[in-house]
Amino acid sequence: MADHNQISGTIVDAAYRLHTGLGPGLLESVYEAVLARDLARRGLDVERQKAVPIDYDGLHFDEGFRVDLLVEGLVVVELKSVEKLAPVHSKQLLTYLRLLDCRLGLLLNFGAPLMKDGIHRIVNNLNQ
C-alpha cells in the first residue's frame, strides 16, 4: 500500500475507532502504542519513536528529534492528548516533514471531545 491517501485514510479510521473505544484524555503514549499495533494489524509498516538525525552547520545530531509514528515510510503521525492544539503543534509537524523529506503528516489530538475535531492533515509542498 503506497498511496498517501489510502494510508492516511487507514490511519484516520484507526484513530477514530481508538478514540471511540478509549475516549479522550489518556496519556499520549497509550494512544501511540494502541494505534501502532492496530495499524500493524492492518498490514502497514509502522515505526514508533523513530529517531531522525539532523545535520546543521557542520554538526551532526544522531537523534535530532523523534517522530511518534512513521507509517510506510511515507506518512508522519504526530500524536497529542491536549485540550486544545497550539499553532506550534502544526509547525512542529511541518518541520518533521521537511527534515524527513516527506509529503504528508497527520496531527492527531486524542484530547479533543470529538476525534473529527482532532484530525489535522499537514502537507509539505515539496518540489517533486
Strand order of the largest sheet: 1-2-3-4-5
User: How would a crystallographer describe the biggest sheet?
Assistant: 5 strands, mixed
Indicate the low-confidence ranges by residue numbers: none
Helices, by number, come to 3
Task: Report strand %.
Answer: 25-35%
Number of domains: 1
Q: Given the helix and strand composition, which structural class is it? A: alpha+beta
In whole angstroms, the N-to-C terminal distance is: 20 Å
Give average pLDDT, whole number. 93
- Judging from the principal axes of the Cα atoms, what is the shape? globular
Order of helix and strand elements from N to C terminus? HHEEEHEE
Radius of gyration: 14 Å
How many beta strands in the DSSP annotation?
5
Percentage of residues assigned to helices: 25-40%
What do you see in this structure?
This protein is of the alpha+beta class. The protein has one domain. It contains three helices and five strands, in the order H-H-E-E-E-H-E-E. The two termini are 20 Å apart. The relative contact order is 0.19.
